[in-house]
Design brief:
about 375 residues; mainly beta; Neuraminidase; 2 domains; 27 strands; disordered C terminus
């Protein structure tokens, strides 16, 4: 009977949840092998497309003489495969792209050959180009589709007016697309959230949010025409290397999170320049997520949420593991990322690999109970 008591109490302790530290997400990277793919390239624009798929607009592809050229192509990703649907497309190196699911229109925002802000609209059959002389855009724009307002929202650096004290490198504005063009939502001489690396629409919060990878990681929310800080994390900062554009990030609508994959500086390491290739995930707070299997590219890849597969699509980029001249490679690989939450609540009741852990307080209570049983029997 004594052994039965022991087995019962230890079993009870085994079933008691234990607060253990665990990675908040379990990442699963899957390397796809489509028959056709876009050319190896960097900084292309990728966004959601029709029927839960994705669009990819060419960035820059390396040439034999060490320079870069745009292939000027538009590709569609659907059913785990790529299909080229147009040549002669606008170059989207450092540009922004977003998709209107109501009218089935793809919008690309960048500069034309005369260095004028220009929007390019793909209606499924052809491109339509509109120069925007009244939009004071001075650098890489960030675009998203606002499902609440059913229109496009753009964020980017602006020159402001001559009355602005600060220069264009310090000023950032937010625009919303209307039937009459683009309307500025904030004050002309605005700092706002600084140089955001991505913007997205959160369908549950029904607002626009932005992320920044410089000087740590930060997340912002657009409310009433101005941006407010939601969360920041000082442990990582993007290693920009030769990268000017940072399209390497995407919103996963199924999990309501933003994930960025690149090489980062580990600011908590003893050497402040320690580099790690990792996922930085924001779902209300920032976390770093490691995976044993992951893409070879370290910089300047393209990502977008893929509702069709409830994950995130990743393509292109380059790697230079030791920052060595002539050691740069361009893996034209297509990956699919799925993230799974590993905890139902932060800091509580996590399990590792599906195995329970003994809770130290529960074990102690079981032993004390066993001692009490033995004492009562000795008294008898």
């Amino acid at each position: 009977m004594r052994w039965l008591n022991l087995v019962f109490l230890v079993g009870l302790a085994w079933l008691t949840p234990s607060p253990v530290a665990a990675q908040s997400f379990f990442p699963s990277w899957q390397l796809l092998s489509p028959r056709d793919t876009p050319a190896a390239q960097i900084d292309g624009c990728m966004t959601a497309g029709p029927a839960g798929g994705a669009y990819f607009v060419s960035g820059l592809a390396p040439t034999a003489d060490g320079t870069y050229e745009s292939p000027h192509e538009l590709w569609e990703f659907a059913d785990r495969g790529w299909r080229k649907i147009a040549d002669g497309t606008p170059k989207c190196h450092c540009g922004g792209a977003a998709y209107d699911p109501i009218d089935g229109v793809l919008l690309v925002m960048w500069f034309n050959d005369a260095d004028e802000p220009t929007e390019y609209l793909w209606d499924g059959a052809s491109w339509h180009e509109h120069v925007l002389p009244d939009v004071a855009l001075k650098g890489p724009p960030r675009l998203t589709w606002d499902s609440e307002a059913t229109t496009f929202v753009m964020y980017g650096p602006s020159g402001g007016s001559p009355e602005c004290v600060d220069g264009p490198d310090d000023l950032f504005n937010t625009w919303r697309r209307t039937d009459d063009g683009w309307t500025m939502l904030d004050e002309e001489c605005s700092h706002n959230a600084g140089s955001l690396d991505g913007v997205y629409f959160d369908p549950v919060a029904a607002d626009i949010r932005g992320v920044n990878y410089s000087d740590g990681l930060s997340a912002w929310e657009l409310a009433d025409g101005s941006w407010r800080l939601l969360a920041n994390y000082d442990g990582l900062s993007l290693d920009r290397h030769d990268v000017v554009c940072t399209n390497t990030g995407a919103f996963d609508p199924s999990l309501r999170l933003w994930a960025a994959y690149s090489k980062f500086h580990d600011l908590d390491a003893s050497d402040s320049r320690t580099r790690v290739t990792t996922l930085a995930v924001f779902d209300g707070e920032w976390s770093e997520v490691q995976a044993a299997v992951h893409p070879r590219a370290q910089y300047a890849a393209s990502m977008t949420g893929l509702p069709q597969d409830h994950g995130i699509l990743f393509y292109g980029g380059y790697r230079n593991p030791d920052d060595t001249v002539g050691d740069t490679t361009y893996p034209y690989e297509t990956w699919l990322l799925h993230l799974r939450r590993t905890e139902t609540a932060h800091g509580c009741c996590a399990t590792t690999g599906g195995a329970h852990r003994l809770s130290p307080p529960a074990v102690l209570l079981a032993l004390l109970a066993l001692v009490g049983i033995r004492r009562r029997r000795s008294v008898r």
